[in-house]
Amino acid sequence: MPKITQTAEEQYNGSPIDGVMSTIGGELSISTNPVLICGVNRKVNIGNFENVDVYSAIALPLNNVSLEDQEKLTEAVKEAASYGFSLVSKETGERYQIIKDSQQGR
Prior knowledge:
By secondary structure, this protein is α+β, with helices and mostly antiparallel strands. It has helices spanning 8-11, 16-24, 70-103; strands at 35-47, 50-61. Strands 1-2 form a two-stranded antiparallel sheet. The chain is elongated, with a radius of gyration of 18 Å.
């Protein structure tokens, strides 16, 4: 018998970033400085038609950048994105490998 969901949240199957933002939303402070959020998601097939989502995200403040200076903002976003995505990609990749290795009995 299929599972009957009780709430709209159980029915929602959106982006992992939405879940992260709702989880940490109470801990984020609003500032006038731009913030860039980088996230990476991987699906690990663990057999028997089951997958595990491995997700990592980081919020990087773009300090000393004004929204009025578009060139400086663009450059800051490029640098932060390069750094942020490399960090979260490495973290999700390592966890992905740990799960895959444990499934293969290594």
